[in-house]
Amino acid sequence: MDTEDHTALRQAVSALGNRHGRAHDPAQLWSEAGKLGYLGVNLPEEYGGGGGGISELSIVLEELGAAGCPLLMLVVSPAICGTVIARFGTGAQKQHWLPALADGTRLMAFGITEPDAGSNSHRITTTAHRDGDNWILNGRKVFISGVDIADATLIVGRTEDARTGRLKPCLFIVPRDAPGFTRRPIDMELNAAEKQFELTLDDVRLPADALVGDEDAGLLQLFAGLNPERIMTAAFAIGMGRHALAKAVEYARDRQVWDTPIGAHQAIAHPLAQAHIDLELARLMMQKAARLYDAGDDMGAGEAANMAKYAAGEACVKAVDQAVHTLGGNGLTREFGLASLITAARVARIAPVSREMILNYVSHQTLGLPKSY
Q1: pTM higher than 0.85, yes or no?
Q2: Is residue 250 annotated as part of the catalytic site, yes or no?
Q3: pLDDT tens digits, residue range 302-314?
């Protein structure tokens, strides 16, 4: 159940999204959302944010998605990068980045996925080693969103633990113009405003203050960003599903065959009702995950965030699929704007973690079943 403040935020963002609509200019929408304070609702007030949490930011993304104009970089810039810097960054890092992330004048991408490791932080091969007061980074990343429009990328690398000799994850802010830091666009069939890139780090030299947080914190800092990523991906999926469902319901009310609206037929009505139920159930789990995270329960939030992402991805795919079938041939036309969602909806099943890995997480962590790997 939304609070009064959440209801007001939802209505205001919905109005903004509906003004821009499906044929929106992402840069213009991003700028306006930043000026209105929506991009930084989760960031601390002392750094220009709204003082809220992921609960509020997920509302922003969900409502923009429901209006047909989701901003994928909301998942990355304020949710992952902003959260990590707010929780673990130095005073200088917070002062430099958080106000600009909050008002949208700066963007930050997030680089964790690698060709041979996926999102498995234990197999990441991007390494960082000290060279005097500097850090030297080498490695590759793939499927990194929005690098071309980001001022820097928060890179997940690994450093050697001096005590154990084992590699541990660490986070580094890499400016887009850093020597040795190059990007190559990945040719995607997915039609999205945000492009995907392969990154190469070839002896990228960074100052000591490029490290975010404590070198020994390891997974704690990493998962501080990954839980919001899953929650926000759920918001992205729920918004997309709501948008598709609304289009289908409107069509089913108006489209008449044999003098009866097709929505009167249970073969049309019941699957749409089921899609609505599934989206609402996914939203409840997303809200639970967001509240646990905002309350500081990282462990509880991890479980709920994974479940929310799974449920939302499944609900989104089913809603989009049923919406297209409701419109029939019209569901594949550019006029109604649903066909492109067939591909986009699958993203919520695949990224940032596959549904199979979420099932692994639940079976191992929640149910206590043995691992198969």
Answers
A1: yes
A2: no
A3: 999 999 999 999 9
